[in-house]
Amino acid sequence: MKQIWQACKTSLKSGLKYSTAWQQGYPWYYARLQQPEAAERYSYLWSQFTTPIPPRPDSPQVSENRLWNLQLAARKIHGLTIQPQQIFSFWHRVPRPTRFSGFREGPVFVRGEVKLDFGGGLCLISTNLFNTFLLAGFEILERHHHSIDPYGSKRFFPLGRDATVAYGYKDLMVRNTSGIPLQLRLDVDPERAEVTSSVWGVTPCPFAVNVTAETLEQTPAPNADGMPGYRVKVTRYIGRPIQAHLEASRIWQPDYEAIALYQPSQSSYYNSSSTSTSASV
Predict the structure, then answer these.
(1) Backbone dihedral region for residue 152 (phi beyond 0: left; psi -120 to 50: alpha; all else: beta)
(2) H or E stretch covering 213
(3) 118 half-sphere exposure, CB direction, 13 A CA radius
(4) I want to staple 51 with a disulfide (CB 3.0 to 4.6 A). Which of 141, 156, 171, 243 is the partner?
(5) d(CA 151, CA 226)
(6) Nearest to 225 by CA among 262, 265, 263, 274
(7) pLDDT tens, position by position, for the chain (281 residues)?
């Protein structure tokens, strides 16, 4: 009965999300063309971000499954061209993570606990992409942070700059407002245990980007094995030359600000025992 109710709830959320996207007209602008062979045309690096894949020494099978999920998602994204005003939607590129779509059970965070579910580990991809898009000046249309900070000092992203995804109701969605055709590249390197994404343009990036993160509040961990909570403000500043020939002199203006609230948790990613679940992140 619980699984039936969960499936109904997920279906309802997905339907509402789909309806809202169409009301805003986003699907008309989704980037659809994957052209990794056109890399030579996009020869100017705009931004790049690399994140390590955190190990699970206690569960090599979980680590192997997560790597499989990361590589499967990367194949759906690498080489995507994003024309001016086009939108990247994570769930438009990556299919619903199920056994039938080829995904395996990996770690997900459900109500402050580490569980196992199909597609577990995809938030590592979405977090990596979010940072690359943030540094490339994309307009952030939708992004959700995790409810907890499970990695602590071993986190693979700057605090406040993560992006979780859950099929049907939590997406990562950005728009290319630069006026310049861009290409997204994504690589999962099992040897280095790293994920690297980058944005490349047909011309150099016409602005500079600076991102700051300020911890506004910290809440103590509930126990010795737990993790503290945080309230973090992330701000992006765009710097444009005062004049075309004065590249060193820029006017900096904030164009994105977000507050991330992480609740204290009973355990961390590294000291929790993963169990199977049918719930989403």
Answers:
(1) left
(2) strand 208-219
(3) 11
(4) 156
(5) 10
(6) 265
(7) 555 555 555 555 656 666 677 678 899 999 999 999 999 999 999 999 999 998 876 778 888 999 999 999 999 999 999 999 999 999 999 999 999 999 998 877 776 667 778 888 999 999 999 999 999 999 999 999 999 998 888 888 999 999 999 999 899 999 999 999 999 999 999 999 999 999 999 999 999 999 999 999 999 999 988 899 999 999 999 999 876 555 567 899 999 999 999 999 887 776 665 544 433 33
* CB-CB contact of 254 with 210 (8 Å): no
Q: Please tell me the pTM assigned to this model.
A: 0.89
Phi-psi group of 8: left, alpha or beta (phi > 0 → left; psi -120 to 50 → alpha; rest → beta): alpha
- Could you give the 3-state DSSP secondary structure of residue 141? strand
Residue keyed to tokens 């080829």: 102
Q: Find tokens 């990562």 and name the residue.
A: 172
Q: H-helix or E-strand containing 72?
A: helix 60-77
* Total Cβ atoms within 10 A of residue 46: 25
d(CA 214, CA 236): 12
Contact 150, 221 (CB under 8 A): no
**CA proximity to 145, closest of 133, 159, 129:** 159
Residues 6+ apart with CB under 8 A from 48: 132, 135, 196, 197, 198, 199
Instruction: Calculate the alpha carbon distances from 40 to 35, 79, 148, 183, 198 in Å.
Output: 11, 11, 41, 10, 14
Between CA 244 and CA 247 the distance in angstroms is 7
CB 132 within 8 A of CB 197: yes
